[in-house]
Amino acid sequence: MILAPTRLRPADLLHVTDRFADDVLGGDYDHLLPAAGLPTAERWFTRLHGTDELDVWLISWVPHRSTELHDHGGSLGALTVISGALTETRWDGEALRDRRLVAGDQAAFPLGWVHDVVWARDTVTGGGTPAAGPTLSVHAYSPPLTAMSYYEVTAQNTLRRNRTELTDKPESD
């Protein structure tokens, strides 16, 4: 997919993630997937597309791994869930609110959006055991990530920034 450089809006990023999700599901990026399969203990990610205006990433999510409460610096963002489920916990200005995102769902992140994203239980197998495979999602950032800030909610129910990290990828080191 070739994208012309323009000033992207959150709605544009939703369209981008949807198109790339279709391409991933169609096998166009199978060559970028780990040969041994997606890791089940650690999150995994790879860049699908990158320009000065836009980065697109394929990210896997596994149980017990949090991104922490964070923003995307000066970047807008969006995601499309390809398989599995995610829980997004976001700061709404007064409290933390959860929403569940399942395969096919999308979310956009305007400037100043502070959230945490984690793997969520998707289904229960026939024996009653929760399915624990990785969740896959496509994320787009415009402009590409350069910094992410991390936050905590204080005892006074306010948001406090703990640190800011320079980064060019959707995961901290």
TrEMBL record:
It holds the Pfam family CDO_I. GO terms for molecular function: ferrous iron binding; oxidoreductase activity, acting on single donors with incorporation of molecular oxygen, incorporation of two atoms of oxygen. Keywords: Dioxygenase, Iron, Metal-binding, Oxidoreductase. The keyword Iron applies. Gene3D superfamilies: Jelly Rolls (2.60.120.10). It comes from the Bacteria. PANTHER family: CYSTEINE DIOXYGENASE, CYSTEINE DIOXYGENASE TYPE 1. Belongs to the cysteine dioxygenase family. This is Cysteine dioxygenase type I. It comes from Mycolicibacterium vaccae ATCC 25954.
